[in-house]
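hey can u run this one w/ iron/sulfur cluster bound, need the structure tokens asap thx
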Amino acid sequence: MADGSMTLAFTSAVEAETAAIWQKVSARITPMEWRLQAPLIAKINRLKTEKNAVILAHNYMTPEIFHGVGDYVGDSLGLAREAARSRAKIIVQAGVHFMAETSKVLCPEKTVLIPDVLAGCSLAASISAADVRLIKQRYPGLPVVTYVNTTAAVKAETDVCCTSANAVQVVEMVAREWGVDRVILLPDEFLARNVARQTEIGIIAWQGRCEVHERFTVDDIAEIRASWPNAEILAHPECPADVIAASDFAGSTAAMNDYVKTRKPKQVVLITECSMADDVACDVRETEFVGPCNLCPHMKRISLENIYQALLHDRYEVTVDTAIADRARAAVQRMIDMPPLAVPARYDMVKARHHVDVELI
Ligand code: SF4
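ok here u go:
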């Protein structure tokens, strides 16, 4: 690295400064790795204080980021709420670009940095603002609910945003308010199919996919059952509907986190991005995390090294056109203003309406 931080020494001062973090991450990080990571973690945490910065770390960040330097950690909804509340001058988004845009939309007066501008998302890339405008022409009078995994320009064309944690709640709320029995839910086809099974409201869906979750198949679930017959299988609702139906539980990353922390199953499989299991495993030592996972290449662009460079050089700043930001903010704010759920929503596997289908655009 240009500033030589890869060669920082693991001194006794660094060891003492990072001892509490090491206690937590030692479930998933080896001592050899830690000796390389701890000096940089200590530097980042000092630099944050000097610059009045906070780091928002998504559940798919690796443990040295999530537990080591994240000030606020969680899912997209939780991070959006924290961005809105934060008093810091600088927000570093340890996540992907649409999340940084959401932070900028909610905090226009703050500097929002993303450590790697190429940290994108297959879902966000699947739909444009022009697509949404055409959809609205095709379905006049129907509300548009958009998943937060979209660009600010797409959110600006939207009536209200949702996350996988509150999608059912948002769809039902907006249908009630508009007095309609169908809602357009963009852009994740599988999330839309899974929401449709949880509500009487008809769903019109786009064919966007998360490249991490679309790869899980029902055969994977069968193999997991054969290999670990006692493991509880928790799946993310961006997975195909048959994967969800074959699992024991489905919910957002927040809901999966809550499930493991409250129930502490003996063995569990998290059907989602790989770092999720590593991060939860640092907190829940009683549970054994087994089975396959898929990596998100976009999330994995974020590292301690580029977080440090982002803070040091105030790069890469994320900006959003003011007119777009104003309209996008209204859609995100409507979601944030909804009464929070007492416990993270789960996709009810028992009551699911398995034969219901969506109208694909
Ligand atoms: S995990 Fe899927 S939805 Fe999340 S950033 Fe990666 S591609 Fe996008």
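Residues 24 and 283 are 7 Å apart (CA to CA). anyway lmk if its weird
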